[in-house]
Amino acid sequence: MPESSLNRYPFYCPRFWHGMRPSAWWRLLRGGGFAISPSRLPLAVSVSIATPFNTLLMGLQNVLYRRRIREAELHGPPVFIIGHWRSGTTLLHELMVRDERFSSPSTFQCFAPSHFLLTEWFFRRFAKWLLPGKRPMDNMDTGWDRPQEDEFALVNLGLPSPYRRIAFPRGGPVDMEYLDFEGVDKPAREHWIATMQAFLHRVSASTTRPLVIKSPTHTGRIGHLAAAFPQARFIHITRDPRAVFPSTCRLWRSLDEVQGLQAPKSDTSDDGIEEYVLDCFERMYQAFHQQRKQIDQHHLIDIRYEDLIADPVGTLQKIYDSLRLADFETVREDIQTWTETEHQSYQTNAHQLSSSQEQRLRERWGDYFERYGY
């Protein structure tokens, strides 16, 4: 990971483990064999100090907001943005929530899922300085109020997730079955879904608008999510695998460096990231292609990152019309303004792919290349 990327994530910035309660934190440490690197001990100590306060604040929130939490419900069917990491899900998420008729789990809500109803106002007003201006992996803007992946909230709430690997990157993949729920027994799956629903209800109680939810990890769970949210809409975004693969490898190495409790291997050729990316892709897309058959054709749309970049306004209109979300004309001008200002100045990271890597991709991800025309 380039030093310039690390410099954009200062040492005082909170990591997403800081939102855990003691029981979830203990399970994470135990799952990693307590193999904390000496250089990461200050991070481990700060999280250990924070976790009891999360429990205390949650208890206070439950008392003060008891009725609001009890009566919380979704304000309309949720819209899920799915697709592999680095396929443009974040960009699409940012665009969708420019429509003020929608909302999304915010960065603070995902980093403090146990007590955000009580504390979010304070961090939004007085603690903006705790976050860097840009995400180190892709130059996207950050902020407590920016839309965020709900998977981070689910990890903080103690649910199994492949993201737990980030804490102890040398230990290899964990919770891979939670990419598609294959092999997860019914009680565990129902508990996972119920915890997610409860979190989204609290978010909805805060925003009082329909939610746009984005997590690449949901791609292989689409059938289960459709069953849990019967009227949900799904936007599936694809991108050229020759760009997705190196960008995703960079993503994981960035997160391992910034968020890890264990220093990652210095030799990237031996860190297992490339094989991990290949395996995750295969597993989630095998499940996605099987489960998408269960989805009403009017509730799911496929779009391409390349089309989104070339024509944001036209692509968003296609999404709105196909999924029957709302009147697109209401938000057209705002999207057009964004396209002519921020979009023009946004620069993606450059990635290189060797001929041997491309051959490997075509062998392992050949179905994706063919199915989506890459």
TrEMBL record:
It holds the Pfam family Sulfotransfer_3. InterPro entries: P-loop_NTPase (IPR027417), Stf3_sulfotransferase (IPR052736). PANTHER family: OMEGA-HYDROXY-BETA-DIHYDROMENAQUINONE-9 SULFOTRANSFERASE STF3, PAPS-DEPENDENT SULFOTRANSFERASE STF3. This is Sulfotransferase.
